[in-house]
Amino acid sequence: MLKEILNKVKRTDGEKVSFTVKLPIVLKKDFEKLCKKNQVPMTSVLVELIEQVIQEDRNDDVNESINDLQSIIISSNQMIESGLDESDVGFNPIEVRDAAKGKLKRMSC
Fold this sequence. Notes:
Radius of gyration: 24 Å
Low-confidence stretches: none
Helix content: over 70%
Strand content: under 5%
Number of helices: 5
Number of strands: 0
């Protein structure tokens, strides 16, 4: 992860805001040494790390949505194969399955 962050460190344009962090002194000194050794600003490394954490969280949300849609498709297929229809379950399993497939396809693009 460190090499990836160091390779991606960039100057970001746009408005900057202050962000205060209190760290154990040893951690701060070690981080400062690491950044000096790699000739990168500490702020840039922190910004890249925060961006990666946010992106990872977004990816987790997308993966969870994909899993949910796949479960809906499987359940709908099972209902269809069992001969269940809207009068049995309160919704049309074919429509639900097709809607889930459509959303899954759009997410894949």
